[in-house]
Design goal:
The complex is a heterodimer of chains A (407) and B (600). Chain A has 407 residues and is of the alpha/beta class. Chain A contains 17 helices and 16 strands. Chain A is 40% helix and 22% strand. In chain A, strand 7 and strand 8 form a beta hairpin. In chain B, 25% of the residues lie in helices and 34% in strands. Chain B is globular, with a radius of gyration of 27 Å. Classes of the chains: A alpha/beta (407), B alpha+beta (600). The complex binds guanosine-5'-triphosphate (GTP), S-adenosylmethionine (SAM), iron/sulfur cluster (SF4) and magnesium ion.
């Protein structure tokens, strides 16, 4: 176990809203389509769970709040507002507190954006996915490109901080198709874009279709071409790839997501939300809540929280997570932070040979300030991590279930 | 059965797939050895592998009772034998237990390479040979032409050969009648001291070691204290019986009969096939001739994919040897593949089958290295080494000369494919011995280095002739050749499992082939890696596997961390199926594929 001194460290809050109007065929998020939602019950549940799980963290400073989903823009703005004010009561916050919300670009939701602004949201992330109606149809989206463009206009007028999501590498996509989408993305961009390669996730409709051979994914060469084109074009437009799939103008990086990539503490509330929390003894806990909305509701009602799985992380696992997440960032990992957290430097953890091979192959760079993957290193990060840890043993964590709030 | 004149012992021999096992089915059926309900196709092919591949691997014996035209009941002991060239040893043992052979010739295909090879073996065993023409139900059957062929090529009188269909059951009774009529009954001294030939032995999970014997003189029964003349071991017989084909206990087995006994024998060393069994109290003075021991001609390394399975592999090999004494094994260590065994086989099919049985019956995942033959290395010191494993090759400067085994191969091939077959033989350093025509078919005899044959020769032969060529071989001489050891380097480290002895003239081609193959097989890695072939320090071929271009998870946020970490941990555990070459992990499957030297 580690001796992380996180007591004074910042904390981020994630709020999960597990409902959508329809289920996208590629999506494996904890999102459900239901006929009726009694929002007042959910309001109560979320507030209760936040208060329960916040126990023993009250002396920390809240760095960001993120309403994610599912489709949190379907929440009643009042609930969003209530959660924000309750959070501000629990934790200290600074004026720059980033509060994001994911929204879908359908016309109905676009009209409500200003309400969320009034509720306290200061950063919006729109699920645009594509500017091509055929692609949108393939992705099973409810909106079309025109909706997205309108929604973006409204969003840019309402919020200073606007981001949107794009998906590339759909089966029929050519380099030219994607280049044209990037051009439009740049044209409509404000200061942040997330661009994801389409991934076939287990348990989704696409997974079945793909397995049955109803469509084929692009080959490795094309995927690499598309990725390189993305980093290149967005980079030259001033939207640098500060993370594998995230691009921003300087100082518009998403504060909340940076907390994840730096493996700082975060508290997740709502169905299926994950948390990483270091307690006063310096033990780092990983836990998550019930995924099924009904279960989450009933458990929250009965116990004040719906934590379903809770484990503490071994030092090795923490190091692994720190590198796995941290190397996704262009800036990499701060060597000082690392040493401070783990009481060992990176050179003490990995063999000289391992590091030298990676340095010689120009896959990593290191100096006295940071340890980072180069752009080609990041492009092959999964293999790089495997290589880095190939002579490193991960002691398994102990695992148990707990009804108690974070102890 | 007291009366020798009412016994007939015979082996069914034929080229592969000409219908021996199917004919055995019909014989069993007509003699009511099994009920309709118990009958299934090729019922004697009892191993899973035999049933799946539709071939016989183990010879089987069956005792049948047949009421002949003359009104007498005859005891027929038949042995169904394998047709594939690798198992000719199995055939020769079966032959030595019988007085005659039933030669099955497919009337649509005619005489093939193993027809000839098996007939020669039967002649050597002094057998009366009864030819039958099978598959006459096929539209392509030409019984008259094949009848002539048998006379011309083999020199057997085929005028009375019965035309049968083992499939439809046509004329099966006539076959049985001609067996009774034409085969000599066994000879032997019923009253003399016990003298029996140990034909085969195998391990049965319930009964322990089962010994298949042919009794020449005397009687064996429960309670007989027997002695194995070669090993000197004595055992008390606790069961004697026959296969009908069901295992059936009998009172005793006497002179002229075929059957089995069990005697709580634990070790296979006590049941050396070919040994003579006699009675301990009253031994026979002269043992039987026995068999020439079978000599493995093809060697390869077998390695467990999971190193933890090594002990289990050893046990499994020992168990398999109980059933098949014709393969050998000894411990071997490889840098690329870890701990394993060097095993010797009668041929490539034999190798494949043992490997498959290990994987299937013993649930082992194995890697097989490239098959190699046994080289004789004449050292400058005057010493001669038998090289079973190319990676054991001594330093070249100490070697005076290397000899390699040659075979004499007989190939039957339709005229239209003769050209390409001859070029194949030449390409494989063959020397033509004979070329004769039998109608539209050519019979070619070639001397070939065995090394060139274990390397995908059979597959090529079959594909060039669209399956029409047949092939048989026997070992010939050892001949000195210009041979070198070629090694393969991945990321500058030698892959010992891929090193091979090749003829100098072919090293470069072979090396280039292997490198290209590996390049395609080895998945792209984090960085580029060279693949090279070398003779000594000299690189003769080179390829580069370029680095992978992209491998990164697109979406990774707070909710994905645990899942992603577990996935990477799992992949890391999966690395036990990988081998390291200078910090590069290569999946063993790449080597396994590279080792499958079939035509790509
Ligand atoms: N049409 C026809 N097919 C036959 C006849 N006899 C055998 N076959 C088929 O020929 C194939 C080979 O038959 P097997 O009895 O397994 O031949 P085998 O000689 O025992 O083969 P090995 O043991 O592998 O040497 C099978 O598909 C049989 O069904 C026949 O009389 N007519
Ligand atoms: C929780 S979703 C966004 C919220 C909102 N419901 C939406 O769909 O617009 C987060 C983003 O992840 C991306 N995403 C989800 N599943 C994906 C997949 N299988 N492959 C690639 N990107 C995916 C999409 O761009 C999506 O906008
Ligand atoms: S992609 Fe967004 S809208 Fe679609 S199902 Fe997933 S969470 Fe809901
Ligand atoms: Mg057979």
């Amino acid at each position: 176990m580690s001796g992380i001194q996180a007591l004074t460290e910042d904390l981020s809050l994630y709020v999960h809203w597990p409902f959508c109007l329809s289920k996208c065929p590629y999506c494996d998020f904890n999102s459900h389509v239901v006929n009726e939602i009694d929002q007042s019950v959910w309001r109560k549940g979320l507030l209760t769970e936040m208060k329960t799980l916040a126990k023993n963290t009250e002396d920390r400073k809240l760095k960001s709040i993120f309403f994610g989903g599912g489709t949190p823009s379907l929440m009643e703005p009042q609930i969003v507002s209530d959660i924000i004010s309750e959070a501000k009561k629990i934790w200290r916050v600074d004026d720059l507190l980033e509060i994001s919300l994911e929204a879908n670009p359908s016309s109905l939701e676009a009209k409500r954006l200003h309400l969320f602004n009034q509720a306290g949201i200061n950063r919006i992330s729109l699920g645009v996915q594509s500017f091509n109606d055929i692609t949108l149809k393939f992705l099973g989206r409810e909106h079309d490109a025109a909706d997205s463009k309108r929604a973006l206009e409204i969003a840019k007028k309402t919020f200073e901080n606007v981001s949107f999501d794009m998906i590339y590498a759909t089966p029929e996509q050519t380099i030219q198709d994607w280049a044209s989408e990037i051009r439009q993305a740049i044209e409509f961009s404000s200061n942040h874009i997330s661009v994801y390669q389409l991934t076939i996730e287990r348990g989704t409709a696409f997974f079945q279709k793909h397995r049955k051979g109803e469509f084929q994914m692009l080959n490795g060469e094309t995927l690499a071409d598309l990725y390189e084109l993305t980093q290149d074009k967005l980079g030259s437009a001033g939207l640098a790839d500060y993370e594998i799939s995230n691009h921003a103008k300087p100082s518009f990086e998403c504060v909340h997501n940076l907390q994840y990539w730096k493996m700082k503490d975060y508290l997740g509330i709502g169905a299926g939300a994950h948390s990483r929390l270091t307690d006063k003894e310096g033990v780092r806990w990983a836990f998550r809540t019930q995924r099924a909305p009904s279960k989450w509701l009933s458990e929250t009602k009965a116990y004040g929280h719906a934590v379903a799985e809770k484990v503490f992380l071994s030092l090795e696992e923490q190091i692994f997570e720190t590198l796995m997440m941290g190397l996704r960032l262009k800036k990499g990992i701060s060597t000082a932070d690392f040493k401070n957290t783990f009481k060992k430097s990176i050179e003490e953890i990995f063999t000289r040979e391992t590091l030298e091979i990676l340095l010689n192959e120009r896959l990593i760079e290191m100096d006295d300030k940071s340890f980072k993957a180069t752009s080609i290193g990041r492009q092959r990060l999964d293999s790089l991590i495997q290589f880095l840890f190939s002579d490193f043993d991960l002691n398994p964590h102990s695992s148990f279930f707990s009804r108690d709030p974070v102890s | 059965m007291g009366n020798l004149s009412k016994i007939r012992n015979f082996a069914i021999i034929a080229h592969i797939d000409h219908g021996k096992s199917t004919l055995a089915d019909r014989l069993i059926q007509v003699c009511e050895g099994l009920s309709e309900r118990e009958m299934k196709e090729q019922v004697l092919d009892s191993m899973d592998i035999e049933r799946e591949r539709g071939i016989t691997i183990k010879a089987q014996s069956v005792q049948l009772k047949f009421t002949a035209k003359d009104g007498d009941i005859y005891e027929l002991n038949l042995m169904d034998t394998p047709g594939h060239v690798d198992f000719s040893y199995e055939v020769s043992r079966s032959l030595s237990a019988c007085e005659g052979s039933l030669l099955v010739v497919d009337a649509s295909q005619g005489v093939e390479a193993q027809t000839l090879a098996n007939v020669y073996q039967a002649i050597d065993a002094d057998h009366e040979i009864i030819p039958v023409l099978n598959k006459v139900d096929l539209p392509a059957a030409e019984p008259e032409r094949v009848r002539n062929q048998i006379e011309e090529v083999i020199g057997l009188d085929a005028s009375e050969a019965v035309e049968i269909s083992a499939k439809t059951g046509l004329n099966i009774k006539a076959v049985l009648e001609s067996l009774v009529e034409k085969l000599p009954p066994p000879a032997g001294d019923k009253e003399g001291p016990l003298k029996a030939l140990l034909v085969d032995s195998w391990y049965d999970a319930y009964l322990g070691v089962i010994a298949l014997i042919r009794v020449y003189d005397g009687t064996i029964k429960k309670g007989t204290k027997i002695r194995m003349m070669q090993t000197g071991a004595t055992h008390l017989v606790d069961r004697v019986g026959v296969f009908t084909p069901k295992l059936t206990e009998v009172e005793s087995l006497g002179s002229g009969q075929l059957g089995f006994f069990t005697a709580a024998i634990k070790t296979v060393a006590d049941t050396q096939v070919g040994d003579t069994i006699t009675e301990d109290r009253n031994p026979t003075s002269v043992p039987l001739d026995g068999f020439k021991p079978s000599v493995p001609v093809v060697f390869c390394g077998l390695f467990p994919i999971d190193a933890a399975d090594y002990e289990q592999l050893r046990e499994s090999l020992e168990r398999l040897r109980l059933n098949d004494a014709s393969f050998s094994f000894e411990a071997e260590t490889s840098a690329a593949l870890g701990f394993g065994f060097r095993c010797g086989f009668l041929g490539l099919l034999h190798l494949e089958i043992i490997q498959e049985r290990l994987e299937r019956e013993f649930d082992l995942d194995l890697i097989t290295t490239a098959p190699s033959v046994v080289y004789k290395i004449n050292m400058n010191s005057g010493e001669t080494l038998q090289l079973h494993n190319p990676s054991d090759m001594p330093d070249v400067v100490k070697i005076n000369s290397i000899e390699e085994p040659w075979i004499k191969a007989t190939i039957f091939v339709p005229d239209e494919f003769l050209g390409p077959i001859l070029s194949l033989c030449t390409e494989r350093r063959g020397e033509q011995v004979e070329l004769t025509y039998v109608g539209a078919r050519a019979m070619v005899v070639y001397k070939l280095p065995l090394n060139e044959v274990v390397f995908d020769f059979y597959d090529r032969l079959k594909s060039i002739s669209r399956g029409y060529a047949s092939f048989d071989y026997q070992m010939d001489d050892y001949i000195t050749g210009d041979l070198v050891r070629m090694s393969v380097l991945v990321n500058a480290e030698p892959v010992d499992a891929l090193s091979m002895v090749v003829h100098a003239s072919q090293a470069e081609t072979r090396g280039r082939e292997l490198c290209t193959r590996l390049k395609d097989l080895i998945p792209r890695q984090l960085f580029k890696i060279p693949v090279q072939a070398a003779i000594g320090g000299k690189i003769i071929a080179r390829e580069t596997i370029s680095a992978m271009r992209k491998d990164v998870t697109a979406k990774c946020y707070g909710g994905d961390v645990s899942r992603k970490r577990k996935l990477l941990e799992k992949q890391k555990k999966g690395k036990k199926k990988m081998r390291q070459f200078g910090r590069v992990d290569i999946p063993q499957s790449a080597f396994i594929e590279a080792l499958k030297m079939g035509d790509s």
